[in-house]
Amino acid sequence: MEIYIGSDFKGFETKKSLIEFLAAGNHTVNDMGDYEYKDGDDFNDSAVAVAKAVRENRGSIGILICGSGHGMTIQANRFKGIRATLCDSVDAVIPAKKSDDANVLCLSADRVDIEKAKEITAKFLETDFEPLERRVRRMNRLDERWDYD
Description:
Blueprint (H helix, E strand, L loop, with lengths): L1 E6 L4 H13 L3 E4 L12 H13 L4 E6 L3 H7 L7 E3 L3 H9 L5 E5 L5 H13 L6 H10 L7
Parallel strand pairs: 1-2, 1-3, 3-5, 4-5
Helix pairs in contact: 1-5, 2-3, 4-5
């Protein structure tokens, strides 16, 4: 499986550990930055890079790690075709993948330690979308353009 991974400074150590963990599982892992620890850096660049790569490489997944996980999730979801989800437990992964076909996993480095991040990531990789008609319909609606007043 092709995996794109990125982090900010708070998620940097978790990202390094996940890259080793995923590579040991024979996954192709593409590090999309940050490439070195930079205290106080912004999450936006790596989130954009991962979201674009996942969008352009159908069937791939993304993993993003920042302090809270919220910034990465919000940034990634700005891209058509991206369904980023913030998961802080293995149980949270199941509906995100089965029901919502999430293709980018976001993790909080502040709330999830490295071992838990590995467990959550493993569950994300092994859980498949169940393409029931109502779920497919809902996923298709996510990419509609909505104009709110």
